[in-house]
Design a protein that fits this description.
Length: 376
């Protein structure tokens, strides 16, 4: 598949490439990750000024109307540069949920600040033992006046330490696995009775374990529609993560090819060894297959095609396995230096490993694909 981009989309791509090339090289990225906050507020403000935070939103809520294709373009470039700022968490996931499930008043109140880059968001949906199941929720929500009170635990909430607000899934009815009893809530990250224990992930980002003990929250949209909203959100997030993975895979291939042309063994470059040439051809094919799947998924998300959940699971599993294969080969072909902190190859390896477990690992999505295929 080969998408023919519009003039506006090509302009978006070139603008992102220029910004990251000038201000987000590998050394700059390492300094950002090593900083106390762990991400660049200056870079986030520049993303907002360039219109990246507005690109996926519809014009009706103040966005640029770029949809999933603009997200794909941005995330592929972010993947190439290992950008750590929470674009997926704030714009694609939380912003998408607000636009999709929120009331008109909530869209007006929250999305403008996301587009301006003044507020960060994160989604708290994972719980211990949930195994990527959106409906497995034990956190409870009790009505109290015009608000709700949340009690429960959330685990591995990405970008939560950076966030100003959280979207939390909680049960308003039913048992632990009931799809119809889950609702979504907006929570101030600094609310009383909310305990947040932050930690760094293997790829240098931040996440948190969150405990809610009677935390006041605002219902997002209406009761009981949380799982359906989260499923649509997961499809969009998978599209963005697949694009990021494809960008990272492309950079790993380029770095490995360049290294094979300069590293010598037995008096010749290792790129002259036929067995290594075959492996690099396999890496190239894996990247091209992943690229085609990424584009197919993004086009399907843009057109809101039927069966997009099945396609999303297929892409997540296939691109996940392709990413792991390429990352493994790149590290091995670079030898011991492949996992050193000074070389970017190891950082791409870690980021691809993290992407593979976000919103379901490849094995989970193979099973989900089969289940959706059976009922198609």
């Amino acid at each position: 598949m080969d998408i023919q981009f519009t003039e506006e989309q090509e302009l978006l791509r070139s603008s992102v490439q220029r910004l990251l090339r000038d201000q987000y090289d590998f050394d700059a990225r390492r300094k950002i990750v090593a900083s106390e906050e762990g991400f660049g507020r200056k870079q986030w403000a520049e993303f907002a000024e360039l219109g990246l935070l507005a690109a996926p939103f519809s014009e009706a809520v103040g966005g640029l109307g770029g949809g999933p294709l603009s997200t794909m373009i941005i995330m592929q470039e972010f993947g190439r540069h290992l950008v750590v700022e929470p674009f997926v968490e704030t714009v694609v996931v939380a912003g998408g949920l607000i636009e999709q499930a929120g009331s008109d008043a909530q869209r007006q109140a929250f999305i403008a600040d996301i587009i301006a880059g003044t507020k960060l968001w994160a989604l708290a949906w994972t719980e211990k033992g949930s195994r990527f199941d959106l409906a497995t929720v034990t956190t409870t929500a009790r009505r109290e006046g015009n608000d709700y009170v949340l009690t429960g635990e959330k685990t591995a909430v990405l970008a939560a330490p950076w966030a100003d607000y959280l979207i939390v899934s909680a049960r308003t009815a039913g048992h632990r696995h009931d799809r119809g009893g889950v609702s979504l809530f907006v929570v101030d990250r600094r609310a009383a009775n909310l305990d947040l224990q932050s930690f760094r992930t293997i790829d240098g980002r931040t996440a948190a374990e969150i405990s809610l003990r009677g935390v006041r929250a605002e219902l997002l949209g209406s009761e009981g529609g949380g799982v359906a909203a989260l499923e649509a959100c997961r499809n969009r997030a998978i599209g963005a993560l697949c694009a990021e993975a494809v960008g990272a895979i492309g950079e790993l291939n380029a770095a490995t090819l360049d290294y094979s042309k300069t590293r010598k063994q037995f008096g010749v470059t290792i790129g002259s060894f036929q067995v290594l040439q075959h492996r690099m051809v396999d890496m190239f094919i894996a990247h091209q297959e992943a690229l085609s799947l990424m584009q197919h998924l993004s086009l399907s998300l843009s057109d809101d095609e039927a069966g997009v959940s099945r396609l999303a699971s297929g892409a997540k599993s296939k691109i996940g396995y392709a990413g792991k294969f390429v990352a493994d080969q790149a590290v091995q072909l670079h030898g011991g230096m492949g996992m050193t902190d000074e070389l970017n190859v190891g950082h791409y390896f870690k980021r691809i490993s993290s992407i593979n477990i976000q919103f379901g690992d490849p094995a989970y999505h193979v099973l989900r694909y089969a289940q959706l295929d059976a009922v198609a």
